Each structure stands twice: as structure tokens, then as C-alpha cells.
Amino acid sequence: MQIAGTDQDEFVDPSDLADPDSRFCEFNGVQIHHKIRDGGQPNVSLERIGSLSHSHQSKRITNFPMVLLHGFGASVFSWERAMKPLAKISGSKVLAFDRPAFGLTSRPIPVDNRALNPYSMMFSVLATHYFIHCLAADKAVLVGHSAGGGVALEAYFEAPERVAALILVDPAIVAPFTSQKDNRSAENSHINNRNSESSLSSKKWNVFGKLLSILTNFAKLVAQVITGIVKGMGQMLNSLCMKVLAAFLRSSITLCLVRVVISMFGRAVLRYAWYDPTQVTEYVLEGYTKPLRVKGWDRALVEYVIAMLTDSKLGSKPPLSQRLSEIKCPVLIVTGDKDRFVPAWNSERLSQAIPGSCYEVIKNSGHLPHEERVEEFVSVVDRFFQKVFGEVEEPLLQVVS
Q: Could you tell me the superkingdom of the organism this chain comes from (predicted)?
């Protein structure tokens, strides 16, 4: 068994593995690999201009570019077959980029005093908006697969006015277990109970009640102070534990373990993600494993995990599951009916928690419907665009006979 990345001579710079259509740009000190497909009309040669005339044909077109966000362990490669068809139905540009730790994007070593960790969620969010700006668009449709779904949602909450629509493909987001209807019923019941209790207490209000209220408020104040002290101590302990854990994860032992695990189980996990594993050809395996030849891929993967753990401990924002009802833009959730990683029932509950969202299931598909069932996936997106953006008259060029 050959362990991934053990031969130092095999490590190369990401640009050495680039495809002819690969592009690189620098964002916040990171060289980000990306690709673009243009769904606009093809260039017409000067010789043919005289033989062309304009006509109009009804055509669904969004006029919004699309930014595609891959999942954990994936890259721009996972969007390869879907990019051109998506560009065609959108009538605009489609861009996919590799987030740090994946694909052919550079793997910088994070600096403790650096304002923005390249492996953090916020970096991915800001990079997403950077590419929307690069596409010279006021808005874009964000498409996130698996862990990329979380990036898409966070990018929406960062600047909702820049997002025309969200498409979440087998999103790795834990859905809330209570629906909006249940929440509203509980709130109404609570209000009714509170009004009833208020009416009852007003009849029995006396001096002893006032004294009890004062003592209760004092007890609450003491409890808040104690809670604050305990919480502060807990944060200090969490911070200390995180530093110890980060040091262990960055150790040579852990890096070696990462290489062994990827070598032993990487290909098996990839096949497990498909409903039909026979579609995982050598070409697909090569596309997924090529980034393992990039310098520092193992260290970057560890840094990504550390950043993910750190993000979850920050607590500056409520969990995504508590903010789903705040989404105002059109949302499509697509899932494979045979997804073994993110079950379809979770995606369905996620759809129920987002007001007005559309939910589509692609039959005989696993965790990667945009790869395993490309035509069905594009068809689902096309119907969604027709529903939310409608049809417009788009001038087309035709050859005069």
C-alpha cells in the first residue's frame, strides 16, 4: 500500500497540476484556483456578421451569474460536468473555486496574529463575495453542495442583498426538529398561559407578593453573576483545551495518521458516496486524488479541521438551524434519494424550516447528484429558475439562408 503524500519528491505546486482552463487569483494572500464557464452567446466571426439577422425566441434566463461551492474533500472538479449546462440555462457566467485545503488552491500556514484564517468559514464567505464582485454582478445565485451549503448560507447572511437565490445540494446542515408551525403554536400557547397567569396574579397581589418578587429578582441577579463567572472559567478552559488539541493535531503523528487514513479509505469513501459505484471511474478517482500531490495538503486538511472546531466554539452567531426562518431569497434544496451521508429526510426538514423553499428529490442518486445524475440535476435547476425568474424574450442570432 502506498501512503498518500509520503514521498516528498511527489509534492508539487498547485499551478503544476493546473488544467488548460484553470485560473488563479490572489485573495487575502491566498492563490485561489477557479474555473469559469460562460453561458452567453458565442463569439461570432467578422466574416459571418453580414449573414446574420436578429430574431426573438422565448428563453428562460436568469441574468445572474452562479457561484458553485464544493463540499468537504471535493474541488472544482466535482462541478466539471455540470458547469457548462448550468451556464447554458442561466444565460450567464458560472464560476467554481477551490476553498483553501482543497483542490489546487494554495495551502498557506496560518499565522496566529493574522486577522483572517484562510481555513475559516469567514474566509470562504468573503472569498465567495469577492468572486461575485469579480463577475461584475450585483447579485449571484449561490450553489452549495454538502459542506458548501453551509458556506452558501453564511454568505447569504453576510450580505443577503448580493444573493439572488440559493441552491443547496445534499446540504450538510442539521435541520431543526421543530417546524415553524409547531413553534408558532408553542408561542401562542405560551402567550395565552402568560395572560392567564397575569390575570390570576393581579387578583392575589399583596405585600407578601411584592416581597417575594424582590427576593426572586435578587436571587436572579446573584445567579447571573455566578453564571457569568462559571462561563468565563469555562471559556478559559475551552481555550486551553483547544490550544492543546490544535498542538496535537499539528503533530507529525497526526499528519502521518491523516495520510494513512486517506490512503486506506479515501477511494472506498468516494465510491460509497455514489448510488452506483461503477460510475466512479479511474478518471473520477484521478480528479479527486490529484490534490493529494499538492505541497502541504495534509497540513492544510488539519488546519481546516482546527478552524472548523474553532468556528464552532466562537458562539458569536446563533447556529444556522436557528436562522433559517430569516432567509428571504428563493431557495431550492436538492437531494439524492439514496444519499448515505446526508439522509433525504434531513434535507426535507431543512426545506420545511426555510419559508417558501422548493424541495426536489433525484431518484437513484447518492450524495453527489450533480455528478451522478447531471441531466436530472440541471433539469431541476432549470425548473427552479423558470419558477422564480420566469421567462424573458432574449434576442438570438440566426443565419440568413
A: Eukaryota
The Cα 311–Cα 304 span in angstroms is 10
In this structure, the number of other CB atoms found within 10 A of the CB of residue 2 comes to 8
Burial (CB < 10 A; 0-12, 13-18, 19+), residue 99, is buried
Do β-strands 30-38 and 52-59 pair in parallel, antiparallel, or remain unpaired? Answer: unpaired
CA distance 75 to 50: 43
* Set of cell numbers at residue 59: 428563453
Alpha helices in 274-296 (DSSP H): 282-289
Please tell me the distance from the alpha carbon of residue 343 to that of residue 175, in angstroms, as a whole number. 11
Residue 140 lies in a domain: yes
Asked if residue 24 lies in contact with residue 106, where contact means CB atoms within 8 angstroms, the answer is no
C-alpha separations of 53 from 39, 60, 61, 396, 398 in Å: 20, 21, 21, 9, 6
CB 376 within 8 A of CB 35: no
Q: Centre a 10 Å sphere on the Cβ of residue 315 and count the other Cβ atoms it contains.
A: 10
Q: Is the pTM of this model over 0.70?
A: yes
* Number of domains forming the structure of the chain: 1
- The answer to whether the beta carbons of residues 124 and 130 sit under 8 Å apart is no
Asked whether residue 246 is assigned to any structural domain, the reply reads no
What cell does 242 get? Answer: 483547544
φ/ψ of 328, rounded to 5, equals: -110, -15
Q: What angle do CA 119, 121, 125 make, to 5 degrees?
A: 110
Q: What percent of the chain has pLDDT over 70?
A: 72
Report the b/e string of 261-274 with b at 16+ CB within 10 A. ebbeebeeebbebb
Domain assignment present for 252: no
Is 194 inside any structural domain? Answer: no
Q: Where is 94: in which H helix or E strand?
A: strand 93-97
CATH number at residue 24: 3.40.50.1820
The helix/strand/coil state of 140 is strand
pLDDT tens, residue by residue, 164-214: 999 999 999 999 886 554 544 444 544 455 554 454 445 554 555 556 556
Residue ranges making up the domain that contains 174 = 19-179+318-399
